[in-house]
Design a protein that fits this description.
The protein has five helices and eleven strands. It is α/β, with parallel strands linked by helices and 221 residues long. Strands 6, 7, 8, 9, 10 and 11 form a six-stranded mixed beta sheet that branches.
Length: 221
């Protein structure tokens, strides 16, 4: 069983089994107050799935892009749970999970997953499609001023095959867990235990107390 946790937008938790079926899920759309509700959401997802912490074999952590404070709360919760249970943490980009959910609706690429980055900016990642069950990025997560994003996406596509914009307001923890399971099965991520310092870096939208300019920039620490 995989426990999936994401706080890049609202707060979302899911329990996903080895077949990729979401057994339990709990979420809140509130972009604030992650710390106050994440424990309750974990308890709710476990209860709905009729499992205990002992049944969890991996924890998937949504790594953003997302705001510094909210994102790190979810990552800390995932790592703390994994450390207590001595199980591995799987780092999964939140936009990748959103892309998987979109492609599972039979949508075709290219698409751009777009999330609100606040400060009149959007975070976006472009995907060509799915290969062997995994979303294929054609750009890394980046920020763009709200007024410039559509023009930027237009430049990334072809006249006969433009990039379709997909605005996302919540991340499915179920999709995050399914993607984590597929990544493990494909050998893309190592089976690492919490606290070994080897997890992927979070994709913070910006560092705390730093205002970014309006030039194109990559998302990262």
């Amino acid at each position: 069983m995989i426990l999936a946790i994401d706080t890049s937008l609202g707060s979302a938790v899911a329990v996903v089994d080895r077949d990729g079926v979401t057994r339990g899920e709990a979420s809140s759309p509130n972009a604030l107050g992650h710390a106050e509700i994440i424990g309750t959401l974990i308890e709710g997802a476990l209860a709905e799935a009729s499992v205990t912490p002992r049944d969890i074999t991996h924890v998937a952590a949504g790594m953003g892009p997302g705001p510094f404070t909210g994102l790190r709360i979810g990552i800390a919760a995932a790592r703390t749970f994994a450390l207590a249970r001595a199980v591995p943490v799987i780092a999964v980009a939140s936009h990748d999970a959103a892309a998987l959910a979109e492609f599972e609706t039979a949508a075709s690429g290219p698409i751009a997953i777009v999330t609100d980055a606040r400060r009149r900016e959007f975070a976006y990642t472009v995907y060509a499609g799915v290969a062997e069950g995994l979303p294929i990025r054609t750009t890394e997560p980046a920020l763009a001023p709200r007024d410039d994003l559509d023009a930027r996406l237009l430049s990334l596509g072809l006249p006969a095959n433009p990039v379709r914009r997909v605005d996302v307001t919540s991340i499915s923890a179920g999709a995050l867990g399914r993607l984590a399971g597929r990544m493990l099965a494909a050998g893309i991520v190592a089976d690492r235990h919490a606290g070994d310092g080897s997890s992927a870096e979070p994709l913070y939208l910006r560092s705390p107390d730093v205002t970014l300019g309006h030039a194109p920039k990559r998302v990262g620490v």
